[in-house]
Specification:
The chain is α+β, with helices and mostly antiparallel strands. The protein has a domain at about 10-15 and about 20-50 and about 60-75. Helix content is about 35%, strand content about 20%. A three-stranded mixed sheet has the order 1-3-4. A hairpin with a 2-residue loop joins strand 3 and strand 4 (about 40-45). It is globular and about 30 Å long. Residues about 80-85 have low confidence and may be disordered.
Length: about 80
């Protein structure tokens, strides 16, 4: 059964794994997960599969890598930061 998770709740899902964890374990364990982004969706297993890291030491380590792998438009408008104005 496919799962969907909002990007803002991604860490909760990643906490299901024991760390350190290897990339293939995450890819296999998240192949059915669709991440809802600001503009569209991405398959989490596919994203992690694109990583050059072989292992992840913590939830924060993996979460940061996923954020780096997302398309630029995924998290909002470029060159805008919240709180200004």
């Amino acid at each position: 059964m496919a799962r969907q998770v909002k990007l803002s709740h991604l860490d909760r899902l990643l906490e299901e794994f024991e760390y350190p964890v290897d990339r293939e374990t995450i890819v296999e364990g998240t192949r059915d997960v669709t991440v809802e982004l600001a503009d569209g969706t991405e398959n989490l297993g596919d994203l992690v599969g694109e990583s050059s890291d072989d292992t992840f030491e913590s939830v924060n380590d993996l979460s940061s890598e996923v954020m780096n792998l997302l398309p630029q438009h995924a998290v909002g408008e470029p060159y805008q930061s919240e709180g200004e104005g």
